[in-house]
Amino acid sequence: MLFVLLSAAKCSHNKQERTEERDAINLFERGLEVHKAGNYEAALSYYTQSIAKDSTQYVTFLNRGYVKEILKDTLGAIQDYVIANRLNNTNPIPLNNIGAVYYERHQPEIAEKYFLEAIRVDSLESDPYYSLGLIAYDRCQFQKAISFFKRFIELKDIVSKRLSTGDLYNELMPEYEVYHTLSLYYIGLSYKNLNQIDSAIYYLKQALSGGISEAADSLNLIHENKR
């Protein structure tokens, strides 16, 4: 959901404004192309040029923020996400991304506020639930973690439909599947910590079949403790 295409320029009765808007879209699309190719410095340049032409498109700030995050300019990323949210406060992605940056900066209390706000904006957006699950797990709030991770898993069909609608299924659904499997793993670990062993085994086996090799170690420990 970080890559969003601008379908058309806004309607304008001013010829110069229309030209600026078309130029902004062209620059955005060039940025998107090199962004997808992994050329983040070039993407940053194109997005910045696009914003200079038209600073009203939230997706340009959103994508530039993501590029800045990759380039380790986390403060710049937050600033762009804040602007993206200001331009479109009905979209949860900027809020989720701000939360993700703060989580990576080891500031879970601030991150949690943004993840919860993202859910308030759109309760069907999956990513904040996964992140809140991690925060709860880190705090040893295992029952709470289970609830968040299960909600993330429950939203799979909605994630699939949204990505298909945005023509992003092939690009982003595999990433969701990875986190889906990791959610199973963390649910299993949470049940293990709650001493609900049957449930732990059930979810850890699913995680193992999904490719999480660490689940095997947890299952072995459970079996050893049963002896």
TrEMBL record:
Q: Which Gene3D superfamilies match?
A: Tetratricopeptide repeat domain (1.25.40.10)
Q: Where are the transmembrane segments?
A: none
Instruction: Check the record and name the PANTHER family matching this protein.
Output: CELL DIVISION CYCLE 16,23,27 (PTHR12558), CELL DIVISION CYCLE PROTEIN 27 HOMOLOG (PTHR12558:SF13)
Write the protein's name. Photosystem I assembly protein Ycf3
